[in-house]
Design goal:
Distance between the termini: 14 Å
Strand order of the largest sheet: 10-9-11-1-12-13-2-14
Helix content: 25-40%
Structural class: alpha/beta
CATH topology of the largest domain: Alkaline Phosphatase, subunit A
Length: 391
């Protein structure tokens, strides 16, 4: 029977401050602990799989007989953003941080961007994505200037109203920025942030966000799977994060509910290889907006989805549930990502439910996927699959 791996990233679902959290200003952050205090938090299936048995999760009742393998992993890369987190899961450790621009982008970058797009710009400094359109959306409507901003992450973000700048045109501006932002200005992502509405009272971001990432500097898990002649499927932001590399088929999503539905479609389909999934709402809608109840409710929805999805897995399928960084919605020092461990949950009919403990490197995940699929690779990390299967 064909082996299949469903690798699902709950974007920002951290499992407690990492050993070096203080270096990132994140001492005390713990996404799981914060959301567990909400009345909307009900994770019966994840509990059964062993989520509450993970090292450091001493604030929730553990499962006496977990059905999955469980553990946590600390990041080796010098960052706490989407790109470095996913690339490390995929087998690339980023030893140097991607550039950030806490004072905004320098004149040579903004000037060239304005020259090539033919439009002026507004803001050019770190800003909350929802607040920036409230504060500058009206001026954008009057002038047609593009709202350019960044964050604590390595990003160049462009917000524009869809009536003023059609989405395809906004994407082309992002491609221009991506070509400009190389070398010392090589941010991890250029992000299109379209919005609608005619006044600050009803401005609203749309699901047509699109990320334009740097290309990974070496082969990732996705490349290895594709090069082996297997299917390499992606759901949600995965295609953007890896700049389309190593993917044989992809679908974008309009949020978690859509992402889970499309993942279920792949579970029901015949293929051999990897299905790599990102569920972004945890981070985008709830973590950054510091919405504890919203985050908890989204986790509960995912947990209920698991109840339907797990019975559909075939004998040689495995599902790995993890994250790419933290974004503690109760953390008051910042609205940015938080430097945390990530959970690692592995389930399959032939998987031994063992404690994987605390691992060094998200890259162990990608290494293990390749190991399970029998795929040749030179990825960083150590496979844990031998501890979970009989071969």
């Amino acid at each position: 029977m064909n082996k299949r791996v469903f690798l699902i990233v709950l974007d920002s679902f951290g499992a407690g401050e990492a050993p070096d959290a203080a270096d990132f200003g994140d001492s005390g952050a713990n996404t799981l602990r914060s959301v567990s205090k909400s009345k909307k938090f009900k994770l019966n299936n994840l509990k059964k799989l062993g989520l509450f048995n993970i090292d450091g999760v001493d604030f929730l009742e553990d499962e006496p007989f977990p059905t999955g393998a469980y553990g946590r992993a600390a990041e080796l890369s010098l960052g706490k953003d989407t790109t470095t987190g996913h690339w490390e899961i995929g087998g690339i450790v980023s030893r140097s941080p991607m550039p950030t621009f806490p004072e905004g982008f320098p004149p040579e970058v903004i000037g060239e961007f304005e020259r090539q797009t033919g439009r002026g710009t507004l803001v050019n400094k770190p800003y909350s994505g929802t607040q920036v359109i409230r504060d500058y959306g009206a001026e954008h409507l009057r002038t047609g200037k593009l709202i350019v901003y960044t964050s604590a992450d390595s990003v160049f973000q462009i917000a524009a109203n869809e009536k003023i700048v059609p989405v395809d045109e906004l994407y082309e501006y992002c491609r221009i920025a991506r070509r400009i932002l190389t070398g010392k200005y090589g941010v991890g992502r250029v992000i299109a942030r379209p919005f609608i509405g005619d006044s600050p009272e009803n401005f609203e971001r749309t699901p047509r966000r699109h990320d334009f990432s740097l290309e990974p500097p070496a082969d990732t898990l996705l490349d290895c799977v594709k090069n082996a002649g297997l299917d390499s499927l992606s759901v949600g932001k995965i295609h953007d994060i890896f700049a389309g590399r190593g993917i044989t088929e992809f679908v974008f999503t309009e949020g978690n509910t859509d992402g889970m539905a499309k993942t279920l479609d792949y579970i029901r389909r015949d293929f051999s290889g990897l299905c790599f999934v990102n569920l972004v709402d945890f981070d985008m809608l709830y973590g950054h907006r510091r919405d504890v109840d919203g985050y908890a409710a989204a986790l509960t929805e995912f947990d209920e989805w698991l109840g339907a999805a797990l019975p559909l897995l075939r004998d040689d399928d495995i599902m790995i549930i993890t994250a790419d960084h933290g974004c503690d919605p109760a953390f008051t020092k910042t609205t940015d990502h938080t430097r945390e461990y990530i959970p690692v949950i592995v389930y399959g009919k032939k998987i031994r439910p063992v404690d994987l403990g605390t691992m060094s490197g998200f890259c162990n995940i990608g290494k293990s996927v390749c190991d399970y699929l029998g795929v040749k690779n030179d990825l960083s990390g150590e496979s844990f699959i031998g501890r979970l299967t009989d071969g």
